[in-house]
Design brief:
The chain has 6 helices and 7 strands. With 190 residues, it is of the alpha/beta class.
Length: 190
Amino acid sequence: MRVYLAGPDVFLPDPFARAAALKEVCARYGLHGVSPLDALAGEPDSWTRLAEARRIALRNEAHIRSCQALIANLTPFRGPSADAGTVFEVGFARALGLRVFGWSNDARPFRERTHAFLGGAASRTSDGWRDAEGMLLEDFALSDNLMIEAAVLASGGELALGEVAEAARWQDLDAFARSVAALAGGRLPL
């Protein structure tokens, strides 16, 4: 089974080593991991005339279409929520009818992370928590925005959460491995 490996891992100092590590975990469970960094077989020649950002987007969508499932790293990225590009890929995969699994190395509820991100500048009101602009903080005791978790669960996927030290949040792969195992149907590693 081909599995697209979504996440902000492409921004790490050595994204190719990270992709190799993720693919190795997939291979232990009999899955074929597909990285956004992988070359696309049969990439149309016409794409060479497009801006690099557009080529990357088209390539990633083509990779997702070539897979039967997606596993997304939903660890908060540059804010209290998952990476925006990763969230797009989750929605894209869900719209295609793929099974979507997610993992995060920050198990705190989304409201708690948002409150911390705001530097505590939120007030409890009669209808929930509000920021300095009076905007309501999402508070459903979920790990991220409700649409992300709902997409994962509605696809038949699962969400694996890990609590790791801040310094290890971009290295620890335990929650990822649990997502891979869940997708593989709990089969023991090869």
